[in-house]
Amino acid sequence: MANVSVYNMEGKEVGTIELSDAVFGAKINEHLVHMAVVQQLANKRQGTQKAKTRSEVSGGGRKPWRQKGTGHARQGSTRSPQWTGGGVVFAPVPRDYSFKLNKKEKRAALKSALTSKVQGSSLIVLDELKLDTVKTKNFVNVMNNLKVQKGLVVIAENDENIVMSARNLPDIDTTLASTINVYDIMKAKTVVLTKDAVAKIEEVYA
């Protein structure tokens, strides 16, 4: 089991914690991590892009000029793609970009992502994270104490004070241990977990 230091909100080390090898010491599968990220981004796509083909644009009912003798290249319709206002070749149409990833593959990808953060010393464990009020300045002070600039903060239970305090920070995201995902983990330079969040993740994924 990996031993990781535990810090308080002042950035001081207050102990250590043993992380489960089943979750934080798994074999890293880069292919599954890549697939999980691609799936999440694909599932977010609206798929509403649309352009008209030559069969959908207006006009072009008659041949613009006779076949021969004009000096122009032959043309059959003003709806052809080479004409201004003509149709688009292989125009995009509304479609569903989402695809399915098996449950075991999702779990393996998440474990791989968490393990990579542990091995890269990019995972910080907090003994607790509590704010009395919604105050972005106080949250920023905690991140500065931990020397976190671009990070993901994972908490066990929904805490409005924490979520609202971090909402305006462009480089800090917050999420629950129950909704943690591969894309957010890999996007973050540092992952900050509370001890309660660690316990919850190990309970679900171990």
UniProtKB/TrEMBL annotation:
Q: Which SUPFAM superfamilies match?
A: Ribosomal protein L4
**Could you name the domain of life of the organism this protein comes from?**
Bacteria
Alphabetical list of InterPro entries matching this protein: Ribosomal_uL4, Ribosomal_uL4-like, Ribosomal_uL4_dom_sf
Its GO CC terms are: ribonucleoprotein complex; ribosome
Name one matching Pfam family: Ribosomal_L4
Q: Which GO terms describe its biological process?
A: translation
Q: Name one GO molecular function term.
A: structural constituent of ribosome
Function of the molecule? One of the primary rRNA binding proteins, this protein initially binds near the 5'-end of the 23S rRNA. It is important during the early stages of 50S assembly. It makes multiple contacts with different domains of the 23S rRNA in the assembled 50S subunit and ribosome. Forms part of the polypeptide exit tunnel.
Which protein are we looking at? Large ribosomal subunit protein uL4
Q: Which organism is it from?
A: Candidatus Acetatifactor stercoripullorum
